[in-house]
Task: structure prediction
Amino acid sequence: MVTVRLHAALRSCLPHQSGVLRVPAAEGLTVRKVLQDLGVSCGAVGLVLVNGKMASLDRRLLPGDCLELYPIFGGG
Result:
């Protein structure tokens, strides 16, 4: 299983809005595929962390990984 944590406004993408869910770590699973399955636009994500390190949308996920997704931050 892969633990997926959605932060801030991205939590609204989950029906229970807890911000945490577990997905099966199928072979070839990528961050992009998780986003597609959740119906989250890649353009809405500003920061991707896998096991605490920055990662790309094409990063393959393995059993036990923790994926954290943060929205685009604004400000100035």
About this structure: The chain has a mean pLDDT of 91. The two ends are 38 Å apart (CA to CA). Helices lie at 31-38. The beta strands are 2-6, 20-23, 45-50, 53-54, 66-71.
